[in-house]
């Protein structure tokens, strides 16, 4: 199965296309505002409002053999711990080998932003190259999950 942390996810359409081609059940999870797909393989899950409710729904279900699509690092860490494959929107795989460093960097950056409220920043814009890397990574992850 594929689980998509759908709030602010720029690759929902790509996930649906690849999941359909591979005939894989996919859960698109958000706290609302997502248009349900008519595709029978795609199930839209709307969770109640609240901090991390969608994340908890995914983390409580994703396990070995599943793929999780998220940009949320704490959610990714829980899913990796459960044995799921995790991909960021740009195709970067979050694995047992790298999730600790990524989580530590995220926490450090949060501390730096809290210490300097005038600090500007943010990630670079999502690009066509990111979308292409994501599609390639999802294809590889689905093949690995099936094998």
TrEMBL record:
Signal peptide (residue range): none
Assigned protein family: Belongs to the UPF0178 family.
PANTHER family: UPF0178 PROTEIN YAII
Designated name of the protein: UPF0178 protein SAMN05444339_10130
């Amino acid at each position: 199965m594929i689980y998509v942390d759908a709030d602010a996810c720029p690759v929902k359409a790509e996930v649906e296309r690849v999941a359909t081609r591979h005939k894989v059940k996919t859960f698109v999870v958000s706290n609302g505002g997502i248009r349900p797909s008519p595709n029978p393989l795609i199930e839209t899950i709307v969770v109640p409002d609240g901090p991390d409710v969608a994340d908890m729904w995914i983390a409580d279900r994703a396990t070995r053999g599943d793929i999780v699509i998220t940009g949320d690092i704490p959610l990714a860490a829980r899913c990796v711990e459960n044995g799921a494959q995790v991909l960021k929107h740009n195709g970067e795989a979050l694995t047992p080998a790298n999730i600790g460093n990524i989580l530590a960097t995220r926490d450090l950056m949060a501390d730096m932003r809290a210490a300097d409220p005038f600090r500007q920043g943010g990630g670079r814009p999502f690009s066509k190259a990111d979308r292409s890397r994501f599609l390639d990574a999802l294809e590889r992850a689905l093949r690995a999950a099936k094998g």
